[in-house]
Amino acid sequence: MGLVYNRKDSTEETGKNIVFNLELAQKHVLVTGANGQLGSELQRAAAFHPANLIFHFTDVNELDITNPTAVDHFMASHGIAYIVNCAAYTAVDKAEDDVERCFLINRDAVKNLAESAARHNAKVIHVSTDYVFDGTGTRPYRETDPVNPQSVYGRSKQEAETLLRQICPVSVVIRTAWLYSVFGNNFVKTMIRLGQEKESLNVVADQKGTPTNAADLADAILKIINYTEASGDFKAGIYHYSNEGETTWYDFTRAIHALKGITTCKVSPVTTAEYPTKAVRPKYSVLDKTKIKEMFGIKIPDWKASLEKVLEEL
Questions:
Q1: pLDDT tens digits along 256-287
Q2: Which of 5, 82, 153, 180 is catalytic?
Q3: Cα separation of 289 and 100, whole Å?
Q4: CATH number for the domain harbouring residue 14
Q5: Rounded to whole angstroms, how far apart are CA atoms 33 and 19?
Q6: Known catalytic membership, residue 153
Q7: Residue 157 in contact with residue 128, Cβ under 8 Å?
Q8: Out of 8, 20, 124, 286, which residue is the most buried by the measure of CB atoms under 10 Å away?
């Protein structure tokens, strides 16, 4: 059933399960997609959060969320109070051809979680994306702005948001963007590798957004749970979270190389038209984070400061 965390001074280890027992009113938290970037950061952060929270970290091998029976059995047998859904089909270009599987994981699985959460009186925190917007905006996108996804991936995530909010109103949707981490494969690691291997790189310079350190997002998610536990008030709704500031993929790459001391690779700016991809990317996807900061008192680091922290660890 994956990793189970609940803090205490004494520890009992059994195979892959790690259980910390504590005599408190305990709440069980199901985290799906636990082997991904965000799920991995949540695993790392969970040990430093309130001891009454028992985290069940699962990926597809422990819980297939596309199977509604399996989801409902897990929810009932573990008395889940919160679901944090980090699972997603994120191969944006591949999704244009792999439509059925993309929707199965990104929409239908979320429907399964929502229905089970509604039956078992659980709260849901679901991670969504900037791809629900068409990218034609000129100011940071607010949660109330109209959605208009331009890709299969974006449509699957937008439909998931709608279903979740309809089926389980006691839910939080967090849209994020340009996620990276010390874990898994991501743009930051790719640019480091290519910068060390190649003499030159062309990087898109007319798509603007904000990189998000998955560790910062994991911390924000846990703060929402902690706030709810402390106040008894679960502030359901749609929220935006990315690091502060804005940049382009080109300038993001230059910052990565500068911080890593990569000087032998020339990085040149190109347009989206010069670097076509199967799926349409939003040209502008900076997110307005005012709501999540005001609702939960969350302080969000600047993207450059967070990038520096990750590169130091890498």
A1: 999 999 999 999 999 999 999 999 999 999 99
A2: 153
A3: 32
A4: 3.40.50.720
A5: 20
A6: yes
A7: yes
A8: 124
